[in-house]
Amino acid sequence: SSVEIPIPNNAFETLFKKVNDLDLALLKEKSQKIKLEKKITKLKKKTNPDKQKQKKYDSQINELDNKHKTALEAVEFYKETSLDAVQKAVNAGNSVFPVIGGAVGGLIGAFVLWSNIGTAKDMYQNEKTEKLLQKAYENK
């Protein structure tokens, strides 16, 4: 007799929503950067530009760039790791439960992917992102 594994209806919707949230966060950073760049351009057009202000804007842009780069790396890293995990989970599921393997493997994989995207988002919001990312790469 085959066992039915219930896959939550919204599992994949939730997953894609998490990816979307992360993308939106990155877009907000981008628009913030564009605003800052416009301010700098305005400053430079003045005959006597405020050097302090310019320095401040420059460092803000730099900070946004670094945050953005690290966030993208985190997302990419987790996407790669997760896809790999999904594949392994499906394969393991198939060999252990030939009848229901696909469903079990897919479910395990979905949850691995799901939790990893959550982790990527937490990392993105954490100021220790660089260190966390470094750790993640070392443990790969």
Describe what you observe in this structure.
The protein has 4 helices and no strands. The protein has helices spanning 11-45, 51-96, 101-125, 129-138. The protein has one domain (21-135). The model is unreliable at 1-9 (pLDDT under 50). By secondary structure, the chain is an all-alpha fold. Helix 2 packs antiparallel against helix 3. 83% of the residues lie in helices and 0% in strands.
Radius of gyration over C-alpha positions, nearest whole angstrom: 22 Å
Class inferred from helices and paired strands: mainly alpha
Q: How many distinct helices?
A: 4
- C-alpha geometry: elongated
Tell me the domain tally. 1
Low-confidence regions:
1-9
Measured distance between first and last alpha carbons: 39 Å
DSSP summary, beta strand count: 0
Organism: Cetraspora pellucida
Protein name: 20683_t:CDS:1
Keywords: Coiled coil
Coiled coil: 26-81
Output the keywords:
single chain, mainly alpha, 83% helix, 0% strand, 20683_t:CDS:1, 140 residues, 4 helices, coiled coil
